[in-house]
Amino acid sequence: MRIEPDRLLIDSAIRGDADACGEIYLLLKDSIYSFAVRMTNDTAVAEEITQDVFVFFVQNGDRFDPDKGSLFSFLCGVARNKILNHLTRSGTRLERSETEPGDLNGTDGSPVGSPLNLLLGKEFSEVLEEGITALSALQREALLLREMEELSYKEISEITETEVSVIKGRIHRARKALAVSLAPYLKDSRTNAYELHRS
């Protein structure tokens, strides 16, 4: 679980206290890295982005405004910009239209998984990761910030500089796509689909 640094620690870091910067790094680096690696699907790139985020904070800590949100939200916004720059440079499409749900089936056209795989939690996790990776970058970003980092719609809106209604739409489409990819693993996809949904 992520622990948000207190205001005294943040103020010390902004004033250039190396120990305070190190403590903030230790508190938040895993969450920033997790977000970056799930967005880029590349551990080396995620490590570089994570380092860049904290270097940015050390050099530009005075840009953080606690009245606008938590330090984690601020750093996620910095990470997001670096991630989107990377994805754009690598040719990744950032958004998929509503009418283009993506191919969440296996290469032979059959649904991913089999009855035997119902018993294998590892297989389910792999299919879940594949489903998340298959999402558009902007849907994946919104879903990860909501589900993995447990941020509110408002916080995600602030990080991404996007209207809350757009964020909700992206998360809805992401959950819908995941429900399709995970349907073979659910007893009754109609009754279990909303297990993927949190308010």
Compact overview of the structure:
With 199 residues, the protein is an all-alpha fold. The protein has helices spanning 7-14, 18-40, 43-60, 71-89, 121-134, 137-148, 153-160, 164-182, 189-192.
What does this structure look like?
The protein has two domains: 7-89, Rna Polymerase Sigma Factor, Chain: A (Orthogonal Bundle); 115-196, Arc Repressor Mutant, subunit A. The protein is built from nine helices and no strands. The protein has helices at residues 7-14, 18-40, 43-60, 71-89, 121-134, 137-148, 153-160, 164-182, 189-192. The longest helix is centred in the first third of the chain and has 23 residues, at 18-40. Residues 97-119 and 189-199 have low confidence and may be disordered.
Secondary structure layout plus pairing:
Blueprint: H1 7-14, H2 18-40, H3 43-60, H4 71-89, H5 121-134, H6 137-148, H7 153-160, H8 164-182, H9 189-192
Helix pairs in contact: 1-2, 2-3, 2-4, 3-4, 4-7, 5-8, 6-8
CATH-defined architecture of the largest domain = Orthogonal Bundle
**Radius of gyration, in angstroms, nearest whole number:** 18 Å
Q: Which consecutive residue ranges, at least 5 long each, have pLDDT under 50?
A: 97-119, 189-199
Beta-strand residue fraction: under 5%
Shape: elongated
Q: Write down the overall mean pLDDT.
A: 81
Distance between the termini: 20 Å
Q: How many distinct helices?
A: 9
**CATH overall fold name of the largest domain:** Rna Polymerase Sigma Factor, Chain: A
**Can you say what the CATH homologous superfamily of the largest domain is?**
RNA polymerase sigma factor, region 2, helix turn helix motif
> How would you characterize the largest beta sheet?
none
Number of strands: 0
Instruction: Return the domain count.
Output: 2
| Helix and strand run | HHHHHHHHH
Q: Mind telling me the CATH class of the largest domain? A: Mainly Alpha
The structural class is: mainly alpha
- Percent of residues in helices comes to 55-70%
